[in-house]
Amino acid sequence: MMLCVNLICPIMVNAEDRKIIVKFGKHLAKLRTEKGLSQRELSHRCRIDYSKIGAMERGEVNLTLVSMVELARGLEISPSLLLNWD
Amino acid sequence: MMLCVNLICPIMVNAEDRKIIVKFGKHLAKLRTEKGLSQRELSHRCRIDYSKIGAMERGEVNLTLVSMVELARGLEISPSLLLNWD
C-alpha cells in the first residue's frame, strides 16, 4: 500500500484562496439544487458525510481531488463541471 | 481570518482513490508538455514548488481545490480542463 496524502489539515488560507473555496461552495450548492438533491441525499450517493457537504458549500473546505471526483459521482456529472463556474 | 482547511495529511488512500490520483497525474503531465513547459517552468508560473508538481504527476498527491486552480493559472487553462481526462 502506497503512502499517499488525502484529507486536509486545518491551517490558515489566504484571502485569494478563500475566494476560490467560497466560489466553489456556491457552485456546488447550485449544481446540487439543480439536481433536486438535499445535502443528505447527495451524501447518500457518495462517500462524503452530509455535514462535510454543508461545510464545503459554506466555503469552509479546500477539498481534495478524490473528494471532487466523489461529489461528481454523487451528482452524476463529469468532474470537470465542478470547476466550470465562470 | 477564517480558520479554513488547506493542505493535506498523510494517511492511506484506497485503491480506487489511488487510480484517480494517478490518472490526474498523467493528465497533468500531458497538459504541461502540450504547453511545452518543464515542471520547473510551470512552478515559476504558479505558487507550487516544482518538486510538488513532480509528485503530483507521479500520482503521489491528492491535491486540493486551491492547488488545482493555481496549476490552471500556471498552465493558462480553465481549471475544468484539469478534470477533463476521459
| Unreliable runs of chain A | 1-11
Can you give the mean pLDDT of chain A?
88
Number of DSSP E strands of chain A = 0
Count of alpha/pi helices of chain A: 4
- Tell me the count of domains of chain A: 1
Largest interface: A-B, 37 and 36 residues
Oligomer: homodimer
Distance between the termini of chain A: 39 Å
Could you give the order of the helices and strands of chain A?
Answer: HHHH
Strand content of chain A: under 5%
CATH class of chain A: Mainly Alpha
- CATH architectural group of chain A: Orthogonal Bundle
GO molecular function (chains A, B): DNA binding
Protein name (chains A, B): XRE family transcriptional regulator
InterPro entries (chains A, B): Cro/C1-type_HTH, Lambda_DNA-bd_dom_sf
Organism (chains A, B): Chitinophaga barathri
Quick structural summary:
By secondary structure, chain A is mostly helical.
Q: How are the SSEs placed, and which strands pair?
A:
The structure is a homodimer of 86-residue chains.
Chain A (H helix, E strand, L loop, with lengths): L14 H20 L4 H7 L4 H8 L7 H11 L11
Helix pairs in contact in A: 2-3, 2-4
How would you describe the overall organization of this protein?
- The structure is a homodimer of 86-residue chains.
- With 86 residues, the first copy, chain A, is mostly helical.
- In chain A, 53% of the residues lie in helices and 0% in strands.
- Chain A has one domain: lambda repressor-like DNA-binding domains (434 Repressor (Amino-terminal Domain)), CATH 1.10.260.40.
- Chain A is built from 4 helices and no strands.
- Chains A and B meet through α1 and α4 of A and α1 and α4 of B.
